[in-house]
Amino acid sequence: METMKQFITKKTKNNGIRFGDRLADHTEDGVYMFKENGFWTGGFWTGLNWLCYEMTGEEVFMKSARGGGERLRKRVYEAPGTLDHDAGFLYCLSFVADYKLTGNEEAKRTALAAADLLKSRFNEAGKFIQAWNVWVPGEAFSEENRGRIIIDCMYNLPLLFWATEVTGDESYREVATAHAQTCAGTIIRPDYTTFHTYVFDPVNGEPKYGRTFQGYSDDSCWSRGQTWAMGGFTYAYKYTQNPFFLEMARKCTDVFLAKIGGDDVPFWDFDLPSRLGEPRDTSAAAIAAASMLELAAYVPAADSLRYREKAKSIVDTLFHEYSTRHNPQHEGLLEQACSHKPENSQTNCSLIYGDYYFAEAVARLANCTKAYW
């Protein structure tokens, strides 16, 4: 793990010099591009720096994390309408991390403000958190967003669970638990594969249908979506101790393991008619590894060992076969990540969330992170 830690921290430190307070998103020709307000991905850059701070104790990483976090702080107070259900990704890995590691009370207040915004998206009739905003009023797809959930939100719920822990206000936990229950009965199929999105009637809350946009088809299993379910239900169990959520996490994880087989890095979708020429997704592999390392803490010894061994195998493969360790000019940590293949968008690059989860998995294996979820 030491060699991997050195690779991660050295590259992140060098990137921080160029990035300043900007929030990285994806690479083009090995150079990271930025999103002005952080999009949904900005927290992964701050989170990566907090991981490096834990791994090294060097305050340069704290400075980078807080520098990027300032953009997110302004966003929650000055432009809350730009936020959606991804507040967990943004604020767990910036302000919750800061509070957990340093006791920063201002960071705690900002994270709670973000939790309030996330909780306010709850649809009482349907018992779900609305995922996306109505981007273009009157346009059919945007209007569907009033009743849409997406599988990614399962990994955003820890922000709400954490808010209950630090305030004692059970309403955050109640919303997160209700959303997880709703996901389990809708966006998770009977065979424990996942839709990307699921649409409800926004008025009466009635479930309507599943839709998959970043996967191959509505009936296929988008590999990254499966990993969001793996980690999301694991954290739902961590905070509630509800055995139903643990069972969901295990079932979704075992489906992932069955579909990936002896491989370590999945293709962008598990159900492609042909894999010839199709891209893999290292970000899905990294999320799976980090999620299994958390799940391993809650299952019997034999399963714990199985999950940890597979996570370790994934991390080793990512480092030795997919990392940029021999290319110091490349700003990403992992190559061959795939964001949105159906739109041919960012299909062979580094994605900041893939880099973050790879670093989280390495830090977990090295026993040097408190984790921020």
Automatic annotation (TrEMBL):
The entry's keywords:
Hydrolase
Keyword Hydrolase applies: yes
Any one Gene Ontology MF annotation carried by this entry is: chondroitin hydrolase activity
Residues forming the catalytic site: 86 (nucleophile), 152 (proton donor)
Where do the annotations place substrate binding?
86, 152, 210, 212, 224, 228
Q: Name one GO biological process term.
A: polysaccharide catabolic process
Source organism, top-level taxon: Bacteria
The signal sequence is none
Give the UniProt family note. Answer: Belongs to the glycosyl hydrolase 88 family.
Q: What is this protein called?
A: Glycoside hydrolase family 88 protein
The species this protein was found in: Paenibacillus roseopurpureus
